[in-house]
Design a protein that fits this description.
The complex is a heterodimer. Chain A has helices at residues 3-35, 40-44, 52-61, 68-80, 94-129, 134-148, 151-165, 190-197, 200-237, 240-247, 252-282, 284-289, 295-304, 308-336. By secondary structure, chain A is mainly α. Classes of the chains: A mainly alpha, B alpha+beta. Chain A: The chain crosses the membrane at residues 15-36, 108-129, 141-166, 203-223, 264-286, 314-336.
Chain lengths: 343, 537
């Protein structure tokens, strides 16, 4: 059987087996939101003369006047038809909001992850090759620094230095300068859309907007990636096949980059999957500091106001992405180490 | 066309200069654009939608017109709205009958909606019918001005509408100046009505049908709204279009980022920076701040008069006497506001306006005595709550309250609650006492009492329902004689000072921060920016 067919079969099986988990997530979030203290209808009844009548009106509008089992059934029916409800915070359908915002979060997270990997892998390898040397300590220091400083502090610091003092970074407000022209939306990823449309000025504007928030995020996840690379490399470097390779007189570069690194990559890939999911959902602070119109800050705003539909939609989306990421990781495993089989 | 050398040269020159022309045009646009940054977001284009944010109000003020509007006046050198001068916006003239119960509005002949159709009496009638009948925020508000049913509005001719009320209500006309009494292009909205939605509310959420100074160029809920000037607009005082060609209202959640943007000159206006940052910003000299005490708002500590031991007047008075007002004012607000404590009167106030400084000051001995009288010589345990969203100013205040009350043996636990949770607990009257800031659109004494100190609505934070207030406020509302009105108001203020359902603290400043070349900013009843006033000099 060809590789592609095998991957497709695995993916299909994975997707099918994740249905019960997704269903569980839907029901659980639904119940959780309703158990949390705070009545959204009361919060949104914010008119200057809001009384009981208005609260009741909003309750009906949000469907909260019905008994809870009925609400759940209605919600499940809506999900089946691709309707995740309407957000009170933005006044838009949740699906539309998520479609608008997910590419923003993904674009930021991918860039940050790429940036982090391009730093973490060489640093981790260097540290592993010379354990307890000055280089190793330097890497350890950088990692600790990255992980110790909360993202909103490093974010604000970067803004202060590069925007406020030096004036080289564009103003840290969202994905594109407000005065720049927006490329026509194809994928939602501005870098890709601008490239498709050939609007290189917009591409450049979007890329420069990305640098600071992506660096902030990358700094924060540098530690797990670099440390994991170092640990895995240390283990592999003392193994038999590396010794054999060296004994056979293979070049140092070939031993390290081809034989050792490939074998050391498995745990790094695992951690990469976890880091990616965390970055996507948990980096609310980066999104807030840089006014990034992503899904995480959207979910946080909704949570604060007990706006049920967006929170439920967000959790469902995250669960879905988790399933996808796990699947991708499994496929990457197979590529990194043919011995691994997830059949 | 034949291509010869001359054409080619001209063409090359044009191509070569194009980027520069483009650049100049862009620079010009920047000068004619106002970039307004705020921490909150616009969530609807229809301000009457339940759940509409304050920023949504701000946008609608500039996009829609009302028949009438508030004028403005100078107050301590700053421009503020003036509820006592009412000017025409769509109406060129309002005739009020001698008994104060019939209002005849004459619509300007040249008033036009954004699509070019003229504003007619039918549009006004339809819009007002919508305001009082549709399930929206509007009905409850304009009901406070005795506007409750469609029959009150009649069309006389294409340009004349008459509104009638049963009793001379002081707030009838001011209510029509508020942003709920906007005039819709009824023909346009009617194209989008459905049997379930007879007033087209689903459509107006994302679309506009107004006649105001600006049209909506783009609307990204939660991110930004871009407004473009309506050059045909003549509803202003001078009949000229608004000064700025374009307005960008952008949501920037982080206050520090907003401050940097303004200081760097990349943004032009913000009204919600951290009070602690304003002085340093101004001291650095690149921006100016227009600080206006929000004279139609007040911060308070509200007691739940429905919950023991706060149902006991003496307990409330004891706490009012135990609070370290000056320290609270410094710690929470950096003294950026107007005090509502330390009033020098006792018994009956000398002034009928409200809010005004109430005669509360710190007196620990008196507090102890009052608490003993109330039957709590050894104090009691309770908790003090504040909204997570306002932690920046409420947290130091809570700590000081805890410390001050420990001195009279009241042991206080502090609770930080998220927005929705605290609103729910306030409405269900489950919090013993807490800090809140509230605002009245129509700053008239009887309105404050009707809204904040009597009745079942959420804004009556203390749940205080004194029959005397109901009686007096009801009377004051329809009182046309100024002297009698003032006397009634003073009586209500005296009762409140005695009963202490809430402790008034201060009126926080609204600090509008802008580069030095921005001028004309006016503090509005809605606490938003009326872009029609602002210009670059």
């Amino acid at each position: 059987m060809s590789l592609a067919a095998s991957i497709a079969r695995r993916a299909g099986r994975r997707a099918l087996s994740s249905v019960p988990a997704l269903f569980g997530v839907i029901v659980f979030t639904f119940l959780l939101m309703r158990v949390l203290p705070g009545d959204p209808a009361v919060f949104f009844a914010s008119g200057p003369n809001a009384g009981q009548a208005e609260i009741q009106m909003i309750r009906e509008q949000m469907g909260l006047d019905k008994p809870m089992p009925q609400q759940l059934l209605l919600y499940l029916r809506d999900i089946a038809t691709g309707n995740l409800g309407r957000s009170m915070n933005t006044g838009q359908p949740v699906v539309a909001d998520l479609i608008n915002r997910l590419p923003a979060s993904l674009e930021l997270t991918f860039t940050a992850l790429l940036l982090a990997l391009s730093l973490a892998l060489p640093l981790g390898i260097l540290a592993a090759l010379r354990p307890n040397s000055l280089v190793d300590h330097g890497v350890r220091f950088l990692c600790s620094l990255g992980v110790c400083v909360p993202t909103f502090v490093s974010g604000l610091l970067l803004i202060y230095a590069f925007y406020y003092i030096l004036g080289i970074a564009p103003d840290p407000t969202g994905r594109l300068d407000v005065f720049a022209s927006q490329p026509p939306v194809v994928t939602g990823f501005i870098l890709i859309d601008a490239a498709i449309a050939g609007e290189w000025e917009s591409w450049w504007a979007a890329a420069s907007q990305l640098v600071l928030p992506a660096s902030t995020m990358a700094l924060f996840v540098l530690a797990p990636l670099a440390r994991m690379t170092r640990a895995a490399m240390l283990a592999v470097m003392t193994s038999d096949f590396v010794r054999t390779g060296e004994a056979l007189g293979l070049s140092r570069r070939r031993v390290v980059l081809v034989y050792a690194l490939r074998n050391a990559l498995l745990p790094v890939i695992t951690i990469m999957g976890i880091v990616f999911s965390t970055m996507l959902g948990a980096n609310v602070l980066v999104e807030k500091v840089f006014s990034w119109p992503g899904v995480a800050s959207y979910a946080l705003d909704a949570l604060l106001t007990s706006d049920y539909a967006p929170v439920q939609g967000f959790v469902l989306l995250m669960a879905f992405i988790f399933v996808l990421v796990n699947l991708t990781i499994d496929v990457l495993y197979g590529l990194a180490d043919p011995r691994v089989s997830i059949e | 066309m034949k291509l010869n050398r001359r054409h080619l040269l001209a063409g090359t020159a044009a191509v070569a200069t194009a980027p520069y022309l483009g650049g100049r045009a862009e620079a010009q646009t920047r000068a004619e654009t106002l970039r307004y940054v705020t921490g909150a977001a616009v969530n609807t284009l229809d301000p009457t939608m339940p759940g509409a944010t304050r920023e949504a109000f701000g946008v609608s003020v500039n996009v829609y017109d009302r028949l009438v509007s508030f004028g403005r006046k100078q107050r301590n050198g700053n421009w503020v709205f003036d509820i006592d001068t009412i000017r025409g916006e769509i109406a060129e003239k309002v005739d009020v009958s001698p008994d104060g119960m019939t209002f005849t509005f004459h619509i300007r002949k040249n008033a036009k909606f954004h699509d070019g159709t003229p504003v007619t009496a039918a549009d006004v009638k339809w819009s007002y019918d919508r305001a009082v009948s549709a399930r929206s925020l509007a009905a409850a508000q304009i009901g406070t001005g005795s506007w409750t049913k469609p029959e009150q509005f009649t069309i006389v001719d294409t340009h004349t509408v008459v509104g009638k009320i049963d009793k001379p209500d002081r707030l009838a006309l001011p209510n029509l100046c508020t942003l709920y009494a906007i005039v819709f292009n009824s023909a346009l909205v009617k194209k989008h009505v459905t049997p379930q939605d007879p007033w087209g509310q689903n459509w107006t959420k994302d679309n506009t049908a107004g006649s105001g100074a600006y049209t909506v160029e783009s609307f990204k809920p939660g991110e930004q709204v871009i407004l473009r000037r309506n050059d045909a607009w003549t509803g202003g005082v001078d009949g000229k279009p608004a000064p700025f060609r374009r307005i960008i209202c952008q949501t920037i959640p982080e206050a520090a980022t907003r401050a940097s943007l303004i200081e760097k000159g990349d943004a032009d206006l913000s009204i919600d920076l951290q009070p602690s940052d304003i002085d340093t910003l101004v001291a650095r000299g690149r921006v100016k701040a227009i600080s206006t005490p929000q004279f139609n708002a007040f911060s308070m500590i509200a007691f739940n008069t429905k919950m023991p031991p706060f149902d006991n007047k003496k307990v409330r008075q004891a706490i009012a006497a135990a609070l370290p007002y000056d320290s609270l004012f410094k710690a929470g607000l950096f003294e950026r506001g107007a005090k509502l404590y330390g009033g020098t009167w006792s018994g009956t106030p000398t002034d009928a306006s409200f809010p005004q400084p109430m005669p509360y000051k710190q007196d620990v001995a008196k507090a102890k005595a009052l608490l003993a009288e109330a039957g709590f010589p050894n104090g009691f345990e309770t908790f003090f709550a504040f909204n997570l969203g306002s932690a920046a100013f409420a947290e130091p205040i809570a700590a000081l309250v805890k410390e001050a009350l420990a001195a009279i043996n009241i042991r206080v636990e502090i609770q930080k609650l998220p927005d929705a949770q605290i609103s729910t607990m306030v409405t269900e009257r489950k919090l013993p006492f807490f800090i809140e800031t509230s605002i009245a659109w129509l700053p008239s004494t009887d309105y404050f009492f009707r809204t904040f100190l009597y009745g079942p609505q959420r804004w009556n934070y203390s749940g205080w329902n004194d029959e005397r207030i109901a009686d007096l406020a009801g009377k004051a509302r329809f009182e046309t004689d100024k002297a009698k009105y003032d006397a009634t108001c003073k009586e209500m203020i005296a009762i409140m000072a005695e009963e202490t359902p809430i402790v008034m603290l201060w009126q926080p400043n609204q600090d509008a921060v802008m580069p030095k070349n921005i001028d004309g900013y006016t503090y509005g009843y809605h606490r938003q920016v009326d872009f029609r006033d602002v210009k670059r000099t």
